[in-house]
Structure formats: C-alpha cells, structure tokens
Amino acid sequence: MAASDPWYLKVKDLVAFEEGEVAVRQCAGCHAPVALMTGEVGLYSRESVGSLEGVSCVFCHTLDRVEGGNARYLSDPGRIRPYPGGDYLSVQEIEAAAHLVMADPQQHREDMMRPFYRTSAFCQGCHELTMNGVRLQSTFSEWAQSSYAEQGVTCQGCHFTPGAGETRERGRLVDHRPVERDRVYRHTLGGGSLTVAARDNRTELKEAVALEAAWQGERLRVTVRNVKGGHAIPTGVSDLRELWLEITAMDANGREVFTSGHLDAAGRIREGSTIFHTVFGDEHGNKIVRHDIWRARQILKDTRIPADGQRQVSYRLPGSAKDVKVRLLWRDAPADFQQIVVQGATQPAEVFSLAEWRQQR
C-alpha cells in the first residue's frame, strides 16, 4: 500500500505542485523505491504495476546495505538470479509456481537473505526521517534508546513474530506442500495504521497500551502506559496519527457535567483535550496540518508515550460527577487533514477505542 495509498497519493501531488516533480523523489525513496530507481516516479500516474507494489518483497530482499535514515540504502536487484522458467513465465504463473523456489532452495536463500536483515538497522532507512534539520520520524532512534534494544529485541522480533522476543511460530512453508518447520517469519508487519487495508493491526495496537484511572479527591488521575511498544506510541507519521483521551462524567440524574476529548461538528477533537502526538511547525511557528512536512522547521509539541514510558493527566471534575467513563481513542488522521488534503478520496478515518475505564462514585 505504500505507493498506492490514497492519502500518500494526495500528499505526493501536493509536494509535486508546490515543490516540483523532482521533490517527489524524497517521498518515493521509501514509499515507491522501485519507481524511484526506474525513473517512473513523478506527478502523473505513470508508474508500472511493479512500481505500484510499493515496498515489495523483492525490493526489501535486494538491499545490500543501509547507511542511515532518509532512504540511505543500497539496492542491488542484479544479484537476484532468475529461477528456472522465470524468463518466460508470466507474473501470475510465477506467483503460482512455488515449485520454482523449491527447485533450488539454496539459491533462493543466498539471493534473498543477508545477515543484517535480522538487525534493526535494516529498518532504519525508511523509519528515520530528517528534513530541514528537524527529525520528523524517529522510530529507529526511539527503539535504540529503549529497553528493547538493551535486551536485544529487534524490530523484527516484534513485527515478524507472534510477539516481542518470540522467535518461533510453527507453520507451513508453502501452502500447497506438506512441508513444515518450527520457525516461520510472518510478514504482516502490524503497525499503527488502522485503515481498511490494515485492520489486523487493531489487536496489536490495543495490546501495546494500557489505560488506568483513579480518584484523588475531586480529581481524576488518568495514566496511559506504553506496555509493548519498542518505540513511542504513536510513531511514524505521528503528526497525523491521533491517540487521545475522551472523558465523560454524568451526575446522578444522567446529565453530562464534564466532557473532554469529544469531537465537534466538523470531526475535530475539541480544544483543551489530551492528545498524544507530535505537532510540526513552519518557520513562522504555524502548525502544519496538511502533512506538508517539507515546510517543517520545528517541533511545536511532542506528547507521545515513549517506549517503556507513560503519560499521566489529572482532571478536576465537579462534585456532582457520579458516573465517569474514560476511553483511549485512536484515529489515523485528523479531520483537518482529511478535509483539506484527502477531500473525499476515501472514507473518513474511523475512530477506534483501544481501552476503556468506567466507575460510579
């Protein structure tokens, strides 16, 4: 989805119109690497089917070296030798003909695997981004400073396995062959996007955070913990991803006496709410809302929940509050971004509840 996601395509057009077609290459280095290397990337939709696969299996397995963020990697597709029959079979036939891999498994292993693929440095190239001297995406750095790095738990240790630190998942090597082995690496790569194409990520995101609340006199103390994320939550495009607290307090008659974190008529999170995210600013200190990160010159706010960390918020509720409900909510993108940039290209980003707490006094 990296090269064909409707939101990415809208932002790609935005940067092309404002900064020129050449500027799109900065995005394509991670979103459409094949299109970048073949010269197909640009303003107009001229990418081939292969390029539109985005970050494909073959692309990742052609990397020979990663030297840092901002797509500083070396790809060598020429070292992938053709399989028997691969020069005349169609793409569909090759995908269906798993026996071509089985015909020479050692060649497949040598072509498709490098030792550093097992290290987090392999992921750094596209999960660390600095522009105009400002670090706008820092997933790799967040991991490197966490207890996960100290314990030797890599990115792959969570995102390619059943869970953090787990290395084995018994499974079938090829669906239609009775070949089994104890270690099968999954490639679903669960993460922070809960769009239609990534609904399996919900369970993983729910398991990554914990919500706690307790009364302290007339104040309600709410704590959100990062319990399974080897990086900040949210991470990646954290200027878009919204994680926030919604508080609803009712009196003995069922009337609302306090609210926070509710949406207004335009779908925006109301002012004064507790949101865990980053806010980028331009050179004048204005908030960037279109994800036009090439204009970012500073980070105005960073309230994300760090790896191994927590955020605690206290609310003063009226004495009449008798029934209080707290929800930890998630949305892939703010209403302003969807209305200004996406403009109906897709369904509005849904709001998901990751955790809830409720208590009557």
TrEMBL record:
Q: Which Pfam family name is an example for this entry?
A: Cytochrome_C554
InterPro entries in alphabetical order? Cyt_c-552/4 (IPR023155), Multihaem_cyt_sf (IPR036280)
| Domain named Cytochrome c-552/4: residues | 23-62
The source's domain of life comes to Bacteria
How is this protein named in the record? Cytochrome c-552/4 domain-containing protein
